[in-house]
Amino acid sequence: MESFFPFAETTDGVTVRVSVTFLPEQSDIDSKRWFWAYHVRIENHRDTAVQLLTRHWRINDERGGLQMVDGDGVVGEQPIIQPGKAHDYVSGCPLNTQRGSMEGHFVMVGSTPPAFEVRIPRFVLAEPTVEQ
Fold first, then answer.
1. pLDDT in tens, 68-106
2. Secondary structure percentages of the chain, helix, strand, coil, to 5
3. pLDDT digits (tens, 9 = 90+) for 14-43
4. Backbone torsion region of residue 96, taken as left when φ is above 0, otherwise alpha when ψ lies between -120 and 50, otherwise beta
5. DSSP state, residue 114
6. Can you give the residue ranges of every domain in the chain?
7. Quick one: pLDDT band at residue 129, thresholds 50, 70, 90?
8. What does the alpha-carbon distance between residue 52 and residue 98 come to, in Å, rounded to a whole number?
9. Residue range 7-126, CATH number
10. d(Cα 89, Cα 80) in Å, to the nearest integer?
């Protein structure tokens, strides 16, 4: 699992794992548009269920550009993750540079308040021909 999800971080018993795939068929290098898919697995190692409420992303490109993305849930869902279970989703990120990174956090709530932040590890977006 570690090789498929090379980026991982655990916060308060919840582990977030990420893998990234460059999508050349959705990229247009001549127009300076690169596109990646990222697969996120959220694992609940706590004794009680957790629910993902919101997300916060910091997306950086190699020219120093920064984009912040905030919203409810992930891909239209606010999943409840039972103890010992995981939730997987796939999304995508376009950039106007051939290299960048993403990181952020989810806001989750357990069986009792308060809500808490779960860190999303920093991961690199790089065209395969670019040295990682």
1. 999 999 999 999 999 999 999 999 999 999 999 999 999
2. 5, 60, 35
3. 999 999 999 999 999 999 999 999 999 999
4. alpha
5. P
6. 7-126
7. confident
8. 31
9. 2.60.40.1470
10. 13
